[in-house]
Amino acid sequence: MTNRRYASLRIRGTALCGPLLALLGLTHALAAEVNLVYDYQSTVTNDSAGPLDLKAGLIYDDAVAGAPIAVVMHPYSGNTGHFSGVYPNADRLRDLGFFSILVAMRQREGSDGRRDSGGLEIYDIFDAVESVKANFPGLVDSSRIYVTGYSGGGGNTMSALTKFPDYFNAGAAFVGMSDYGYDPIDGWYFNGAGGRTSQLNIDVGDRTTGDPDVIDRYHARASNLASKNNPYSEIYLFSNESETISPIVNDISYRENAIASAAFPGEFDNITFVNGQSGAQYEGPVDPLDWVDWNHDGVVQSNERQDYPHSSSVSIQERGELWFLEDLLAGGIPQPVLNDADELFVAGWVRTRPFQMWLGDGQNAAADLTYSLTSDEMIFDLSIASLDKSVIGELTIYENRLRTTLARVELNGQFVAAVDLSSGYIYNGLGHGDQLRLVAVSEPAAACLLGAGAAAFCCCRHGIKLSKTQCGRPRRLLRRLLTRIGP
Question: Which residues contact 209 (CB under 8 A, 6 or more apart)?
C-alpha cells in the first residue's frame, strides 16, 4: 500500500511546492490542504496478483486532528473523470472540518477489478474507510462517519447504509437508485436507466431474459428491500418529483419498505425523504417541498430552495446537508449500535460489528436472517429469499457476545464443534431453513481444557464412562462432554 501526496499542496489558497515549504519551515506552521491519490486493497476480492488494488482520493487538512470522515461517492457512468467531478464537494466538506474520502469504484480511476453495479464493489467503501482509520489514526475520528453520493453514488450510498447498518452515523443519497432492476416495473433497468442498460447487462445481466440467475443477481442489489436493516443512521434521500433518470420510486420504496417492517411506530423516523421540485413558485412549504425557511426570516435564500435536480453541484449538496450536517459536526448524531435481536434482509451480504452473513459469491443471492445475541447464546436463522434455494451462507463472528470464551456450536440442534471465540469464528455451510446456535459453555465444561485429569473429572461428573485411552485425550473428552451437557 502506498500513499502519494501531490507535489503541489494548497496552503491557504496559495500553491507552494513541498521542498520550498520544508526550506521555509512552514510545513507545520500553516494548515496544509492535502489532496492525494491513496492506494488500498480489497479484503474480499482477489485477482491473479492477490487482493485487488483500489484507489481513493483523500482531501483533508493535515493540521486538523480528529476530523469526522466524509465518504463522497461518484456518479455511475464512465471510467475516468470521477474524482474531478466530485472534488468540489469533497473540498467543501474538508473546509467544514471533514476528512474526505472519494472512493473510486472498480474499473474507475485506476481501481482494479470488474465493476458490478452495486455488488461486491460496495465493500470497497468499507475497506477504504478502514484503511484510512488504520493509517491516519490521529487525523480522523472513527466514531463519526458520513457517506454521501450523487446518482450512481446515491445508489451506492443507499446500498452501503443497508449492507453496513451499524457503521455510518449519517448518509445522504442525492437522486440515487435503490433497485437496479429486480422489480420488473419500477426497477432502474426498466425505469430510468435508458441507454445505461447496456452497462447493466455487463455488470449484472440482461434483465429482460427472465433468466432466474440474473433475477437473483438483481435481488442481491435491491437496497430498498434491505432498508429495514438500518433504523440507526440518520438517512436523507433527496430528489425532485419530476426526476426521470432515478425516479422518486427509488426513494419512496426505500423508506416505505422500512416503515412497513417496523417493530414499533416511529422506528424508522431516521429515514427522511425530501421530495423537492424545480421551477416552482417559492411561496411556502408544500408537498412536494419547495422551500425550508431555515433562518426564519421569511425570505427565500438559494440554499433554502428544495430543488434537487440530477446534478452533483456544490449548491445542491449544501442545501441538502442543511438538514443535518450541523448536528453531525457537533457530535449530535451518535454512532449506531446494532439491536440485540432483529431480522435483516441480506442482499448478497451484510456486515455488522458483531457478525457478517455472506451468501454465495456475494452478489447472486438474497435471504432473511433472524438473529438474537445474548450472554447465553447467539442464534442465527437463515431463510433464502432467492429463486435458487441451494445457495450456502457463511457466517463470521467478529464480536463474542457470550459470557464465556468457549462455545458449543449447534446446527439445527445437532452438535457441530466446540470453539474458542476469542479470535472470532467462521461457519461456512448455513443453508435455507438452517439455524446456527452458539451456546456459552459452563465452567465445568471449560475446565476440561486444562488437561486430561480435569477432563476426566468433568466427564465422570456428567456420567460419561471413559476408557484409560480416552482419559489421555482431553480434546476428545471435551467433544464428548459438550455433546452431553448444556450451558
Answer: none
